[in-house]
Fold:
Amino acid sequence: MGLKKGELIEVEVTGMAFGGRGLAKVDGLAVFIEKAVPLDRISARIVKKKKSFAEAVAVEIKEPSPHRINPPCEYSGFCGGCRWQFLKYDLQLEYKREHVKESLEHIGLLKNVPVHPAVPSEKIFGYRNKMEFSCSDRKWLLPSDFAAGEKSFGFALGLHVPGMFDKVLDIKACLLQPEEGNIILEDAKAFMKKSGVPPYGIKSHEGFWRFLMLRNSVANGNWMVNIITSTEDRKTVMPLADMLTEKYPGVISVINNITSSRAAVATGEYEIVLAGSPYIKDRLGNFEFEISANSFFQTNTPGAEILYEKVKEFAGLSGKETVLDLYSGTGTIPVFLSAGAVMITGLEIVESAVMDAKKNCRANGISNCTFVLGDIRESLLKIDKKPDVMIIDPPRAGMHKDVVRQVADMAPEKIVYVSCNPATLARDLLMLKGHYEVMEVQPVDMFPHTFHIESVARLEKRK
Structure:
């Protein structure tokens, strides 16, 4: 008899699927189970049933896996931020490597590609230099909150619960950011609650306080506090800025982004500098970068340095090569590789990112990097000289098929592909398979306690 939605089953978890869910088999049918670890014996409730698979949520752990640990965060299992806290870190690294390997084999049809053990993160807690916290007029209640008789309406500032777009887990601390960030979070939350001004309702689209973003410089220990509101009201936000800069000497920048958009995105239509500098500075290797409120910068600074060192190693520059960098963003990779190349050209579609890239080059005294603004499909057509090395670092969606075709036609001798998504990495490498051989892949873990993994692939043109 087939499984049905709502049915309670008892199974032993035998594997870990991409996406961080445990895998079990029931009469040959794959069942993907949230909050499950290989070798767990659990009861789970079926929440979705399809012809070829089912999805379930763990209800009770009958026999815990030896790979399980007690997560240090009180919100583990409820918060969507880090779903693998209950899994030993060395096992996290093994499963991440396997996900990369399996994607290459099953999606990319690439057999026997050396996939090295994942490079671990320097820190597994307190590693994030940027956190975004959402405001809401409805909070998600923990079992302990129900026991205390709390209500779901009221002010919340924290992180979203998976599948609950309109409710926010009102957290006291997030272990992924430095401890001082949690103290700043609590003070900002207390101020907002006492302000008498309501939080933004994700369903009603009414209210003032929308997000609180904290950015930290690992090199200098400084902080930027970015307050995102629905309207401009300096009388309300200025006292918060004053309180933070007076209490915390490390808060050197307080920004107010204002957005009337209904989209739940922590980016303003415009911004105001309330106190201090419009940016903070951080370092990668020997280079310094200015980071504004909406700039992209890798969220694990030491991990980014490891990642870019691997890109540098795979590029194998001798000082004589020309380099073309696709999806160059704010120029971190071109800046990092600049000493080893004659000329580096970055292609990027986001205008503010190109402006930041040029600014970062000037700040570091770099003159051999240029940046071209525009859609990469069009910009590639304007490159009239084949580069010696091509760097590709696309968003999670990977490369557009037209870009893959243009890359193959351009035919650089060497490609270094940086990916944050094993599935789209494998898909793109499959399309390049006839032209390039994948020599090796190095996973780099920049997101402990999540299933996310960065990978660097080294490709050489087939002879």
Observations:
- The longest strand covers residues 53-63.
